[in-house]
Amino acid sequence: MDSDWTEIPTHILELILEKIEPAIDFIRFGAVCREWRCAMKDNLQQRIKTLHNRYRYFQVPMLLTSTTEDDNTWNMYNVMNNKFLETKLVVPYDKRFCGSSKGWVVTVNKDWTVTLYKPFSMVQYGNNNADTCVIQLPPLFPMEYEEGVEPYDPLEDFPNDYDIYIDPENVYYFHVYKALITHDPLANPDECIVVVIFSDMNELAFIRLSHDGGPQTWIKIEPKFFSEDILFYNDLFYAVMGDGSLRSFDLRCSSVNSTIRELAHAIPWITNSGKRYLVESYGHIIMVERFIGFEQVKIKGRKTKSFKVWRYCFDSNTWIQIESLGQMSFFVGDNSSLSILASSFTGLQPNCIYFTHDVDGLYGSSRPPIISDLGLYNLENGEFKLHFTIESDLLKKMNNRPPVWLVPTL
């Protein structure tokens, strides 16, 4: 006589769940039947509450990569054991993901509409609710080009120049530089706000989701300021500018512009090329500076040279450089930057910055970039471990669809 898995007592399921750590095992557990999925969700919520509130994510992010010939199939790379998962994720999108936040990826379509996908909830383990894991948003301030104008690639005339240039054929999926989601759109739609950095001027815009399905409209934040990254912390939004200065604003107010506050002053770059990220850790606002060097222009190679880390001091409104992350690990890239307690996960390296190849001025031109700038950086000794254990032939398959960190959430 066959066993009825649905009849296993809840307390037994809870004992099993307490032994599970990797996210993929949660997915497999929840795919058995409805009863097991409900037990899995309850257990996951309890773990999030019992784990220190300052650690926003229970699971370590995985690297969402395109290493197959199927345009809609994505692989997941686990940095804790340096292996690809057997399970494939199917996301009906074959371009660059312009953001990853709260377990969702953000895309821009040819008609300038924005789509949110929740890949781990779309995994095909008998889950038939894939449609509920896709959210369509209205057009995001479309860019306009004159008809009949031939696309111009300045690299043809100036092969040694790194001018920022995006091919008009591809401009729509580079329209959003980065995206942030405040709350899960399915679990907390009335509290969910999507904020994006968009356009070639790195402007800010946001949209509120609603449970009742009311009209949704993107709203620009004025005045414009060139933003590198955004962070949601203690009900306020923070944006770091291209010069390293920090600003805050409150989207709960009807007049958002009146809430903009200038906080930390600028930090000049010591080189001409770099990126800045914001991450909340231990209740602190942290800025990560990434210094990048470019190799041959024709192959568009790039390499991260070093990192610096700064903590914002609320009392003095200044950045203070820090030399150690302690037991924390940071994950930076096109995703919402993350801070994870390394001691909670076997194989995760403390005091390290895990980074991936994200958008830069060379993306989107008529020649595809070479994806090579990913790995981990040890803040204590300044050593790099590049590419993890991903082989070069697999890296080449990622050229048109750069990898992005994704938190496994269901």
Could you give the topology of this structure?
Blueprint: H1 10-17, H2 23-30, H3 34-50, E1 62-65, E2 73-78, E3 83-84, E4 89-90, E5 99-101, E6 104-108, E7 113-117, E8 134-139, H4 154-157, E9 176-181, E10 193-198, E11 203-208, E12 219-220, E13 227-233, E14 236-241, E15 246-249, E16 261-262, E17 274-281, E18 284-294, E19 302-313, E20 318-322, E21 328-332, E22 338-341, E23 352-355, E24 375-378, E25 384-386, H5 392-396, E26 404-406
Summarize the structure.
This protein is mostly beta strands.
The CATH architecture classification of the largest domain is 6 Propeller
CA-atom Rg in angstroms:
21 Å
Termini separation comes to 33 Å
Low-confidence stretches: 51-55, 124-128, 157-165
Structural class: mainly beta
Main sheet attributes: strand count, strand direction, barrel closure: 5 strands, antiparallel
- Report the helical percentage: 10-25%
Task: Estimate the mean pLDDT confidence.
Answer: 81
Q: Count up the domains.
A: 2
Give a count of the beta strands, DSSP E runs of length 2 or more: 26
Write the CATH fold name of the largest domain. Neuraminidase
Basic shape: globular
Strand content: 25-35%
Number of helices: 5
